[in-house]
């Protein structure tokens, strides 16, 4: 495998399809969006993402969750947790988000994504208004108290190196599109905030469809 | 970056969402599918994929083309054309197809994908009936005559090494789901065959929706 540069760019031609984003919006009944959940392990990223996915389905909107652990089982199964691999992990996920939104879809990504520069790079791949950084705010103490997967205990014992917030950095978003405090807000309230955010941005229609 | 193994599998938990594939099918009005176009450079893979994407949109179905050159500009911009990089190129694209079909979508991939083993590996990621290998059959002589991008000329002169069909192998599919001969069949006829294939498999409803 070569470096990050494009080794053969002069022989590659970018092709655009004939189905525009406006046409996709008209057919799907919603706009494209990447909703990017970032926060410490145990903060509630995946729980929020899957809850939003279900709430969107209740409104007739099909979306899809890219979950950190799931992607590491497949697309990024070759990557570990070194700083270099974390960068590549987020770069690839960002490109997948870009593909889903190019397709007109709503994609929900749930990754620790500890580095601000990596998150900014993903945002920069998207058109304005197509990327929503959601900071899942929860104190390290609370995440460690929850320790749903027992990972903090392993990190403290040294069994897991490079653990964000414990032995590796987590850079808090300076200007996220939304902050959700999962220590004090209910899941329902967080989902309502997320739906409002997508409505305000015009991704979703202003109110749920009413059955005849 | 480490090898292809999963270096931290014991600390990763696979999570399933709450929106089933059946629910997605009901909401979208079609089933999930990966339509995998394989063939020599210049055989017509991208042309067919984009034509199918447009024909599906005319039936109200949103799909998305993963095009070899486009993916090499982004997700796989770090990969070249060595045998190892070709394998990794197709592996990643296969995983992206899997994500789209998990999301309930129809994804159309247009890659030379010269190795039968790599194509089989992508098929194996999909549930039965979710993957359609389409062999875009066109003789090397005809592809070279077309030489739309001028690549065969460069390959013959040695300016491009490892060129499938010229200086690198292309393994013809032994048992594809569909064979389309772009030297003798019109684009419209090929698209009709593709739609029939998706209808027969139950991915699409049997006939186009009729306007009231």
Instruction: State the helicity of chain A in percent bands.
Output: 40-55%
* CATH fold field value of chain A: Rossmann fold
Which regions of chain A contain 5 or more consecutive residues with pLDDT less than 50? 1-9
Largest sheet of chain A: 5 strands, parallel
**Cα separation of the termini of chain A:** 56 Å
Describe the structure.
Chain A has 212 residues and is of the alpha/beta class. In chain A, 41% of the residues lie in helices and 13% in strands. The first copy, chain A, contains eight helices and five strands; from the N terminus they run αβαβααβαβααβα. A five-stranded parallel sheet of chain A has the order 2-3-1-4-5, sandwiched between helices. Residues 1-9 of chain A have low confidence and may be disordered. The interface between A and B is large, with 63 and 63 residues.
In brief:
2 copies of one chain form a homodimer. By secondary structure, the first copy, chain A, is of the alpha/beta class.
Describe the structure using short key phrases.
Rossmann fold; globular; five-stranded parallel beta sheet; homodimer; 212 residues; alpha/beta
Present the secondary structure layout.
2 copies of one chain form a homodimer.
Chain A: H1 21-28, E1 33-38, H2 45-58, E2 63-67, H3 68-73, H4 83-102, E3 106-110, H5 116-125, E4 131-137, H6 140-146, H7 151-157, E5 178-181, H8 187-200
Parallel strand pairs in A: 1-3, 1-4, 2-3, 4-5
Helix pairs in contact in A: 2-8, 4-5
């Amino acid at each position: 495998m070569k470096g990050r540069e494009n080794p053969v760019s002069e022989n590659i031609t970018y092709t655009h399809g004939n189905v525009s984003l406006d046409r996709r919006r008209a057919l799907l009944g919603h706009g494209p969006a990447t909703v990017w959940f970032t926060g410490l392990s145990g903060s509630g990223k995946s729980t929020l993402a899957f809850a939003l996915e279900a709430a969107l389905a209740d409104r007739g909107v099909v979306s899809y969750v890219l979950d950190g652990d799931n992607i590491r089982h497949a697309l990024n199964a070759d990557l570990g947790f070194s700083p270099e691999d974390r960068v590549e992990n987020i770069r690839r996920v960002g490109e997948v988000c870009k593909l889903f939104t190019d397709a007109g879809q709503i994609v929900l990504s749930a990754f620790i994504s500890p580095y601000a520069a990596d998150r900014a790079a993903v945002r920069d791949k998207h058109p304005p208004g197509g990327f929503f950084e959601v900071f899942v705010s929860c104190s390290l103490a609370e995440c460690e108290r929850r320790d749903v997967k027992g990972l903090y205990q392993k990190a403290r014992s040294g069994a897991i190196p490079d653990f964000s917030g414990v032995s590796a950095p987590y850079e808090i978003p300076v200007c996220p599109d939304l902050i959700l405090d999962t220590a004090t807000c209910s899941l329902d309230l967080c989902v309502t905030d997320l739906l409002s955010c997508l409505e305000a941005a015009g991704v979703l229609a202003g109110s749920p469809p009413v059955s005849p």
